[in-house]
Design brief:
The protein is of the alpha+beta class and 383 residues long. The protein has helices at residues 14-17, 83-89, 132-142, 175-179, 189-209, 265-270, 275-291, 302-305, 307-316, 334-347, 358-382; strands at 9-10, 44-45, 98-101, 105-111, 117-123, 153-159, 162-168, 214-215, 224-226, 232-234, 241-242, 252-253, 272-273. GO terms for molecular function: ATP binding; protein kinase activity; protein serine/threonine kinase activity.
Length: 383
């Protein structure tokens, strides 16, 4: 359950694809964040997005406890496994134990004798040389971070022609799998809001509270793992970068890496990366959580192919209900939806200066969660 990356070319131009950001809302007022012209961007190598078939959904039982504060994270001790032990535990990397596949390689579920379950990621031999930087990068960063909403590193092996990462096992699969209905469940609106808050907490920690600011660079639904209790954890730090630590300097210049549809258009155009690039990706993810749609819907018509453009057209007409995932059958208060989509569109503002920091996003979503809980309580009393 790590990021998949294949090579391909993708040209993303917000002036051409999303002119909606310069339009006016239904009430005739111009949104100060959305009214500015979008910037065009350059082409770059990105992974392709595979389509999945949705399963038959069932309701996920409501979780009132999801509205309470999280308990402190339970941490596992570091593991010192030898390559020989890993080969034995994975039954020589048996396909029967494989739980995911990506550009980096394949991931396996392993049950240790003490009852601990871990995920073991093995680098692909064909990408061994090119993945060396990503491997070292992920290890260096994961060793320094500790947060309940970030996947925990337990160990690694860098020996001969084997590169292996050992992390905590997150049992409930990826967020994208759940949005596709592959687990036979439909996430309720409250659960989606909680997942969004969890991810925002994880990114806030990376940007503000890690030893040095960390920019993830590949925030997307397939890099969000869910626990059995539907807590979200951000995974895959192969593309992550340390942000600028120079006083008064907030950007670093680097080659563009990420996933088509999620990448900051300013980063695409200029190669300048900041924490606000993660904020843009997060906004796209938030829209995906709410709508169930991928950022780029390759099989839809031209007006719906770019999800953020399609969503803004609906939002601009005051039709926010139709943006919601059709698998969501519950009725959600329209004021709650408007506030949530307001946050989302602020995050995907074409210019990074207009995007809020992740800490502010968390604060806004907490208020929305509080208001949503009140509407749910009133609805229950009415019954």
């Amino acid at each position: 359950m790590v990021a998949t990356t294949t090579t391909g070319m993708f040209l993303l131009c917000f002036d051409a694809l999303c002119p909606c950001f310069g339009s006016k809302r239904k009430d005739g007022s111009e949104d100060p964040v959305l009214a500015r012209g979008a910037t065009s961007s350059s082409s770059f190598e990105l992974r392709s997005i595979s389509d999945r078939i949705s399963g038959s959904p069932l309701r996920v039982p409501p979780s009132p406890s999801r509205f309470s504060l999280s308990s402190p994270p339970s941490r596992n001790d570091p593991l010192n496994l030898s390559l020989e032990q890993v080969i034995k535990l994975t039954r020589n990397f048996s396909p029967a134990l494989m739980i995911g596949e990506s550009y980096f390689g394949k991931a396996y579920r392993v049950d240790l004798q003490d009852g601990l379950v871990v995920a073991i990621k093995r680098a692909r031999k064909e990408h061994f040389a090119s993945l060396h930087a990503e491997f070292r990068n992920e290890i260096a960063l994961l060793k320094k971070i500790e947060h309940r909403n970030l996947v925990q590193l337990l160990g690694y092996i860098d020996k001969g022609n084997e590169r292996i990462v050992i992390t905590e096992f997150v049992a409930n699969g990826t967020l994208r799998d759940h949005l596709d209905g592959q687990h036979g469940l439909v996430l309720g609106f409250g659960q989606r809001l909680e997942i969004a808050i969890d991810v925002a907490h994880g990114l806030t920690y990376l940007h503000l509270y890690a030893e040095k600011p960390i920019i993830h660079r590949d925030v997307k639904s397939s890099n969000i793992l869910l626990t059995e209790g539907f807590r979200a954890k951000v995974a895959d730090f192969g593309f992550a970068r340390i942000g600028s630590t120079e006083p008064g300097q907030s950007v670093i210049q680097t080659d563009v890496k990420g996933t088509a549809g999620y990448v900051d258009p300013e980063y695409l155009r200029t190669n300048y990366l900041t924490v606000k690039s993660d904020v843009f990706s997060y906004g796209i993810l938030l829209l995906e959580i709410l709508s169930g749609r991928r950022p780029i819907e390759v099989n839809r018509g031209a007006r719906e192919k770019i999800t953020v453009r399609w969503a803004f057209e609906k939002y601009n007409k005051g039709d926010v209900q139709s943006i919601l995932d059709p698998m969501l059958t519950e009725s959600v208060n329209e004021d709650i939806l408007n506030k949530t989509f307001d946050v989302m569109f602020q995050c995907v503002a074409p210019t990074r200066a207009d995007r809020p920091p992740m800490k502010e996003v968390v604060e806004k979503l907490w208020k929305i969660r509080r208001d949503y809980a009140k509407t749910q309580n009133r609805a229950e009393v009415a019954l």
